[in-house]
């Protein structure tokens, strides 16, 4: 058996607290199962925290402090880890970039906005400007940098297998001027083809279908149960309750059935991109 690889506590704030959690747990002579007992969290969740992959929520921090007799250390410091992880992202989104990095598969349903992993810089700026026009420019720049960093997902070895489903209105109702919209659609097609990922479109003529109520992201992991992410205008929810996760996954499978085939989807996106380029040329 190869030697165990201890977490590198210097890699980030969450990694530091994860390494400290493992140290304190082992010093107390407890297994992950024993530490999790009495909390609302599972063993896999604790394991991800020890590896620096997820932040420690406040309820668990209080439980850990009581169980390990660490005098409130984790309850006082878990907010530091949250801030480090959410830099440039809304607080409620703090876990998602790291979950994307550690996932085995990712499945997106995007009815209203192009998913963040595909957004061009122009689209990001426009999205922030129209959704929260009161934000200071420096804060907008920080958010855009954080979103661009998420796109490094496509360059990583061993990245998650990706499957996305978009609504056709994202293509037909442009949020950007014609040239920038053409570049956005070309970028989506290029990413899908180069990464050998799968993308489908739900046609505008399909009025009734599963998951009509909003954005959904499904993430599965090699060493942890799957989770669902749903998001509204100013809030989001991470769902890991197995029966509810199963319902979302069944609905997503039904959504695939009403969506266009992958090759037809890419053909439609590339055709729309050409149309926007032609429109841009005519405006010059």
From TrEMBL:
Coiled-coil region list: none
SMART domains hit by this protein: HTH_XRE (SM00530)
Pfam families the record matches: DUF5753, HTH_31
InterPro entries hit by this protein: Cro/C1-type_HTH, DUF5753, Lambda_DNA-bd_dom_sf
Domain HTH cro/C1-type intervals: 21-55
Recorded superkingdom: Bacteria
Protein name in UniProt: Helix-turn-helix transcriptional regulator
């Amino acid at each position: 058996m190869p030697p165990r690889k201890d977490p590198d506590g210097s890699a980030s704030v969450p990694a530091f607290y994860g390494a400290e959690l493992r140290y304190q747990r082992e010093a107390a002579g407890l297994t992950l199962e024993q530490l999790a007992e009495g909390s609302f969290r599972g063993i896999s969740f604790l394991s991800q925290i020890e590896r620096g992959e997820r932040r420690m929520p406040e309820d668990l921090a209080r439980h850990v402090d009581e169980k390990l007799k660490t005098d409130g250390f984790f309850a006082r410091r878990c907010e530091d880890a949250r801030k480090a992880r959410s830099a440039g992202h809304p607080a409620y989104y703090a876990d998602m970039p790291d979950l994307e990095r550690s996932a085995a598969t990712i499945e997106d349903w995007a009815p209203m906005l192009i998913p963040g992993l595909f957004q061009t810089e122009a689209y990001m700026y426009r999205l922030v400007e129209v959704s929260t026009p009161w934000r200071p420019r420096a804060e907008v720049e920080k958010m855009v940098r954080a979103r661009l960093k998420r796109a490094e997902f496509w360059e990583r070895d061993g990245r998650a297998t990706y499957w996305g489903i978009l609504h056709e209105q994202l293509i037909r109702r442009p949020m950007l001027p014609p040239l920038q919209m053409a570049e956005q659609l070309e970028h989506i097609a290029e990413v899908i083809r180069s990464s050998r990922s799968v993308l489908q479109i739900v046609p505008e003529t399909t009025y009734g279908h599963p998951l009509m109520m909003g954005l959904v992201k499904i993430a599965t992991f090699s060493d942890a149960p799957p989770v669902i992410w749903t998001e509204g205008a100013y809030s989001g929810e991470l769902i890991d309750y197995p029966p509810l996760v199963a319902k979302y996954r069944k609905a997503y499978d039904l959504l695939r059935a009403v969506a266009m085939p992958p090759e037809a989807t890419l053909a439609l996106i590339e055709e729309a991109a050409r149309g926007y380029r032609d429109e841009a040329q005519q405006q010059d």
